[in-house]
Amino acid sequence: MTVGSRIDSVGLPFRAANSYGVLMKRIILGDNAVVLPTLPRGFARLAYIDPPFNTGKIQKRDRMRVTSTDAEGVRTGFGGRRYEVQKIASGSYTDSFDDFQAFLLPRIEAAIPCLTPDASLFVHLDYHEVHYVKVALDRLLGREHFMNEIIWAYDYGARSKNRWPAKHDNILWYVMNPDDYVFNFDDMDRIPYMAPGLVTKEKAEKGKTPTDVWWHTIVPTNGREKTGYPTQKPLGILNRIVKIHSLPGDTVLDFFAGSGTTGEAAARQGRGFVLIDQNPAAVTIARQRLAEFRPECIGFVAGPQGERLPPTDRGDDGVSRQEVLPQLR
Ligand SMILES: C[S@@+](CC[C@H](N)C(=O)[O-])C[C@H]1O[C@@H](n2cnc3c(N)ncnc32)[C@H](O)[C@@H]1O
Q: In the CATH hierarchy, which top-level class contains the domain 7-60+96-298?
């Protein structure tokens, strides 16, 4: 079931695609507080953000590049082949705020004009800040605009021995209009019954629709999906959000975009995307990841396939420092 109508049918200035019918696909380097006010009004029917969680740490990951070699390698693998292992920095960002709400809320407020009147907003947090942000968003948008708190439960990593190990994130879903929003119930994926013996064979084979508790593994450490960017979220979570809460041809906004998971989920399901991140390493990774969709890069320079260009005014990460702010209107 789809609740909500196409916004362009009511004549609002929404253009998911340009005049040639090409979906909007943009990656923008910059502080979202500066970029968001420059974006067009009412272009996104879905916004998903995964801001820093205020863990008080510097989020950092290094990636390994393993290449086979004839030379003396540091690792010997299957069949006695030698492998060279190189550490590649994948960027880092600070995740510590004295006043997290004062950081986040004005940025969400700045994003609201970018949304269509029937849009959904997803805010991905964890136990550090979710309760404070829930209260602040209820005040900003109205309690009746709150739809769900989705619990993403996973089971990975160290287990605390002096408290229950925290193995879930919290994703708040708000709608701009509680009477008019997109919820593609029929497009939902099915999950196995916990006790298939208690339902008919047909039901057990079909599976059941998910609830507000989503069991999903973290990004597999050695899988193809892994970009190496710290705190990368699983594509499976974003695929579900994009599929159920937007329509093909829509544009999805993520203004804490990191490695571009939202962009990949959007592009693979026929949606456009606008991704913003202030970290040059993030937009570089997102550009490489989304190269096949040929996104426009704004505020930074990337090669045709996302590869680094020869250094001119670039830093260690290979990204241009020119602060070209987009004129997107
Ligand atoms: C938790 S990560 C997002 C990870 C992303 N969901 C993914 O799957 O890769 C948060 C991102 O917010 C970015 N960020 C923090 N403050 C920002 C700001 N003021 N403007 C734009 N991006 C910001 C950080 O650089 C970081 O990449």
A: alpha beta
